[in-house]
Amino acid sequence: MSAPNKSYDPVEVEALKPEEIERAREAALAAIAAADGLGALREVKAAHAGDRSPLALANREIGALPPQAKAEAGKRVGQARGAVNKALKIRQEELEAERDERVLVEEAVDVTLPHDRVPAGARHPLTTLSERIEDVFVAMGYEVAEGPEAEAEWFNFDALNIPPDHPARTMQDTFFVQGRAHGRQPDSGVVLRTHTSPVQIRSLLDREPPVYVICPGRVFRTDELDATHTPVFTQVELLAVDEGLTMADLKGTLDHMVQALFGGEGMRTRLRPNYFPFTEPSAEMDMVCYKCRGESVGNPDRPCRTCSSEGWIELGGCGMVNPRVLTACGVDPDKYSGFAFGFGIERMLMFRHNVEDMRDMVEGDVRFTRPFGMEI
Length: 376
Prior knowledge:
By secondary structure, the protein is of the alpha+beta class. Helices cover about 35% and strands about 15% of the residues.
């Protein structure tokens, strides 16, 4: 903005020329009339009545005029700005009235409907999947067994051939229910179970062989909650103890499970040697990819995101029950043998339904559970 001077000709100030003021006024009125919503009107107001609008900038130039020219220029600009503000107010009232009428129609409420209707929820997909797995094994003659979530260390570790110095028994992996002694080891003897295997031990103690049980339930480990881990998750474990059971029986059971859950055609499992304290021999169980059925392996023309074109998906651990476990439960290992396996239901849900973030399963948002339906 230039300083006032008495010899300045107001006609030479481009923004204050009558035709420029009229042009800015007409442009503003046309934009206001064309605004078809309150959002559009807000944009028009900022462009034609805001601090950087043409009329506002012209008003700033008045200060540079000589005294005898300020009155006429001020009157001209003031009338134009007043017309614009008046048009804005009228158009806003019109648009608000239109909005209110539309809301009355679009958001009408039928007051004759029952007042106590509750929006439909949805069963959690973990519950649905767990019960579906149970149904597969109940149909095979297995029994569903349950046990306490706060478990004695003997059931959770000792009876399963997990020695006192095993890393899994430390505070880094296990929630201890009570405090710690002065030494390094907790003194309560009670933990939140880290797997559902204690239910297998209780089943062997409560039943006479043969024993065929499936043990679903929540387990607890000191993991951080992120996209692929949670400190509370759901596990399903199976135990079969009878005379003459072998790894062949275990393999056949696993094959039947994946065929029942993922479709029979082309579904099979494989076992890879591994180590677990409570089974001997032990193995990791993989199932053939239910999407590509292994056809993506070595086939760049048909990649598979589900198995990363490896053809197999790791599902869980399994093996023949360690004779020490049978002995701890009072079962004669020379007469009976058994097999067991277990896996996490959250992980199966993730690759079965392409769930990418495990946190979605625990946040309780019905928008996550509804798409899975109400299957019973």
